[in-house]
Specification:
The chain is α/β, with parallel strands linked by helices. The protein has five helices and four strands, in the order ααβαβαβαβ.
């Protein structure tokens, strides 16, 4: 059995590195219609507050399509969340793990993180 923090400190970064490398190579072969991304850019340029909510498995193309945007991607403080966080870092986004616990910790963290970026996104990793 691995120590509790070992998987998040060593295994998740390794998995994140491998996935992000493969993803970068794979996404270079894609072609897509960027009409909806243009609408998102228009909203951001007009000063609208935007939060994206994406389901794991459905966000793969969004990483490439949103490249160059100032995005804070929030996910759970879990092993899967740490893997998502590692992938996000390597693709140029600002990942943020939502802390567990009560007393409004998660809410305060969300507000602070989203205010610091022009766009917030949730990588939902649970059922």
């Amino acid at each position: 059995m691995l120590p509790v923090g070992f998987s998040q400190r060593f295994i998740a970064p390794l998995i994140g590195s491998l996935i992000s490398f493969g993803y970068k190579k794979w996404s270079q072969s894609w072609q897509w219609d960027v009409e909806d991304i243009g609408r998102l850019d228009d909203l951001l340029d007009s000063g609208e507050s935007v939060i994206l909510v994406i389901w794991h498995g459905k966000y793969i193309p969004l990483f490439a399509m949103l490249e160059g945007h100032d995005i804070a991607i929030l996910t759970s403080d879990s092993f899967r969340g740490e893997v998502i966080s590692q992938i996000c870092k390597r693709l140029g986004y600002k990942p943020s793990l939502i802390p567990s616990g009560g007393q409004g910790n998660a809410y305060r963290h969300l507000r602070k993180t989203i205010k610091a970026a022009s766009l917030g996104a949730f990588a939902v990793d649970g059922p």
